[in-house]
TrEMBL record:
Residues 219-317 form the HTH araC/xylS-type domain. This is AraC family transcriptional regulator. It comes from Sphingobacterium pedocola. Keywords: Transcription, Transcription regulation. InterPro entries: Class_I_gatase-like, DJ-1/PfpI, Homeodomain-like_sf, HTH_AraC, INH-QAR.
């Protein structure tokens, strides 16, 4: 199986090298168990020597992208720094991505490599994953693509994508399992000390309300919610802040923030609760009251729905202060 790892102009070396190393390691494990190595792995790019991490490193490609007539899987890592500049620097690669997919190649984007993949138009009407911190920017730039908020791996019509940062390893392991076998994927997860079972970015996400919109009234409402999240907030009260009816307010809020008002309040409150769990020794009930909830079960259920962890699990994983016994 031919695997081509695209080395983008000003790519992120921490994302470029993992798939290359992983599929070579998969071959080593297959050989150790008396099986034939099945992966041919190569670096491809727009030129022979490609800078990475803003010029800090240089990667030598084995073939130019224009010379790749066919490959089974093309992996697209993220670019480093400004996304728009990264897209512009790699614009010449986009037609080749499309051509290879038309010939039957699978495509896989890692982290914000999804932006380069989306430039092909191949994701229009489909789902994809990307880094949780770039979801709003991605939605604005590619409104015809459905981003799976918090997803680690997305697969659709031989197109794969992964969530942020270390989530790329989960997609790489998934591809090893898909094209080799489960045993090899598990061995690699142990070899590189990776969590093969993680399926969500939610526990790492930091909620930052969508501000990149032109509705000044809605921005004022967002600021009000973020300052008064511990109080009892009703939709009717929020609507009166901008002198509009409830239905009109809800529509404008959703269009501007990609959240309903209720969802926004919940996300702000849970983000505040996360901060308390990280930095204080308050118990769950105290924090629940501090962020505006009075029903313990409802709070725990909502916290786990948003973060993927229970309040106690979250504290144990991310607390900045020692837990009291």
């Amino acid at each position: 199986m031919k695997i081509s790892v695209f080395v983008p102009e000003y790519g992120v070396i921490e994302a470029v090298t993992p798939p290359f190393r992983t599929f070579h390691t998969a071959n080593d494990f297959l050989t150790a168990f008396g099986k034939k190595p099945i992966f041919e792995v190569e670096y491809v790019g727009l030129r022979e020597y490609v800078p990475a991490n803003n010029g800090e490193y240089t990667i030598r490609t084995e073939r130019l992208l224009k010379d790749v007539a066919e490959t089974d899987l093309l992996i697209i890592p993220p670019t480093f720094g400004d996304i728009t500049k990264g897209i512009q620097a790699n614009a010449a690669a986009i037609p080749y991505f499309k051509k290879l997919h038309e010939k039957g190649s699978s495509l896989a984007s890692l982290c914000i490599g999804a932006f380069l993949l989306a430039e092909t138009g191949l994701l229009d009407g489909k789902k994809c994953s990307t880094h949780w911190a770039y979801i709003n920017e991605f939605r604005e730039k590619y409104p015809d693509v459905e981003v799976e908020d918090g997803a680690i791996i997305t697969e659709h019509d031989n197109i794969y994508s992964s969530g942020g940062a270390s989530s790329l390893w989960n997609l790489i392991l998934y591809l090893v399992e898909k094209f080799a076998d489960r045993e090899t994927a598990v061995l690699i997860s142990k070899y590189f000390a990776l969590d093969i079972g993680r399926d969500s970015q939610s526990q790492f996400a930091i909620f930052k309300g969508q501000r990149n919109h032109g509705d000044a009234d809605i921005k004022n409402v967002q600021e009000y919610i973020e300052k008064h999240y511990e109080d009892k907030i009703t939709i009717e009260n929020l609507a009166t802040l901008i002198n509009t009816g409830r239905r009109t307010f809800e529509r404008r809020f959703k269009e501007a923030t990609n959240n309903t008002p209720i969802e926004y309040i919940q996300r702000v409150r849970i983000e505040a609760a996360k901060s308390f769990f990280e930095a204080s020794r308050k118990n769950v009930t105290e924090i629940m009251f501090d962020v505006g909830y009075t029903d313990t079960k409802a709070f725990r259920d909502l916290f786990k729905k948003i973060t993927g962890l229970t309040p106690i699990e979250y504290r144990n994983k991310f607390a900045k202060v020692a837990n009291e016994v």
